[in-house]
Amino acid sequence: MTLATPIWVSVHAASQAPTKLYARPGTTIPVDDAVKAVVVLSANDVAVAIAEAIGGTESHFSELMTAKARSWGMTHTFFHNASGLPDDLQLTSAGDLGILARHLAYDFPQYFHYFSTYSFTWRGATHYTHDNLIGALRWRRRNQDRLYWSFGLQSCFVRRSQRRPHHRRRNGRNNGQAARH
Q1: 28 pairs with which residues across the strands?
Q2: What is the mean pLDDT of the chain?
Q3: pTM greater than 0.85
């Protein structure tokens, strides 16, 4: 699978509860746009379409995700659906999401830029994030990425800030040398 690979949207994927991209059954979406839809919109329909493309079914994909989580040491996580929508059988912890964020950042740095995506355009329509934090930070700071697992009050948020190596803070005490953090 490449970023250009089309992902087919099934009836099951299209029937997911909002938030969603409202992709119609039988249509396709390239992997690149699918990832952006999940990150920017939390598009449940597209999350399920991705799951079906990788695992054949959403439930098998959930098993694959849980197995990968275990291999990374995420011992308090059990995935039961692809979207993160409430499910009594789906569990995780802040610590496990920290492990996930670390693996994504260090094992797959070529894809981590997706997590700071503010908007994307699909089929002529521009979609903006509903994540107010990334929207507010986009004008103040660069290199802000976020991963989150949320639904209402049942949420966990993981954020990563990356300092640019050439960034230097000046004050009277460090004489222009890089400050230690």
Answers
A1: 8
A2: 80
A3: no
